[in-house]
């Protein structure tokens, strides 16, 4: 069984298309768990009325993407966990293709990254996560026109949790006191951190382009300044957690001027950055 975990937050505009694409799948050995983070637009009511077979967790407030995904994983029955953003639509053969792909694969396969296209079905949202030598992370192929240049399976650094398949055994092995996904992150970069921890523990990530889905993007309408701040803060959390002291010192020497300039730029342009100084030492 594949356990599918979807987060919602004021998602009436998107969740129906997402769920309809799941129930239209050629492969039916799955369960759906939706974690609603305090929606005020009637999202839980829509789900209960139209999709009674879905397991629904209702939080009274927005507990963050990390907490929400962890809540879903905690009650999931499947040996594989598929995380989906609520604004993702799957091609009809998505689950069948990905289920067939993982059969007989090596024991330490921890994650499978599908090909995520933007909703225009022409440009790429993510073919996985790339981590540079300066420990900056990027979505592979982001905003490039999909001309088949990413049609070959290959090992990559990490999986983008907007649509990613996780081995339950791996999740249990790398789980921390702060959860499968580190709940201190709240939202953003948590998939980079999880991928990094998996790599450190000998798990592999593979990109599989025959599983295709389409993504609207930022359905939660999160403020761009808040997103910028969380990306900045959570990147430092990730580095602090996953690199040795010597590795961090080397990185500091290599990227000092870039990092210091970026910090002061954000200090004067982003009202959330003051929280960084406090949060990085928590």
Number of helices: 9
Low-pLDDT parts are none
SSE series: EHEHEHEEHEEEEEEHHEHHH
The appropriate CATH architecture of the largest domain is Alpha-Beta Complex
The best one-word shape is globular
Tally of discrete structural domains: 2
In total, the number of strands is 12
Query: Average pLDDT value?
Result: 92
In CATH terms, the superfamily of the largest domain is Spore Coat Polysaccharide Biosynthesis Protein SpsA, Chain A
Beta-strand share of residues = 15-25%
Tell me the major beta sheet. 10 strands, mixed
Radius of gyration: 19 Å
Q: How far from one another are the termini?
A: 38 Å
CATH class of the largest domain: Alpha Beta
Task: Kindly identify the CATH topology of the largest domain.
Answer: Spore Coat Polysaccharide Biosynthesis Protein SpsA, Chain A
Fraction of residues in helices? 25-40%
In terms of structural class, how would the helical and strand content be classed? alpha/beta
- Oligomeric state of shown chains: single chain
Note down, in words, how this protein is organized.
With 282 residues, this protein is an alpha/beta fold. The protein folds into two domains: 2-215, Spore Coat Polysaccharide Biosynthesis Protein SpsA, Chain A (Alpha-Beta Complex), CATH 3.90.550.10; 224-279, no CATH class. 37% of the residues lie in helices and 24% in strands. It is built from nine helices and twelve strands. It has helices at residues 15-23, 43-50, 65-75, 94-102, 168-174, 190-200, 224-242, 245-269, 274-279, and strands at residues 2-8, 30-37, 55-59, 80-85, 88-90, 109-118, 124-126, 129-131, 137-139, 154-156, 163-167, 204-215. The strands form two sheets. Strands 1, 2, 3, 4, 5, 6, 7, 10, 11 and 12 form a ten-stranded mixed beta sheet that branches. Strands 8-9 form a two-stranded antiparallel sheet. The termini are far apart. The mean pLDDT is 92.
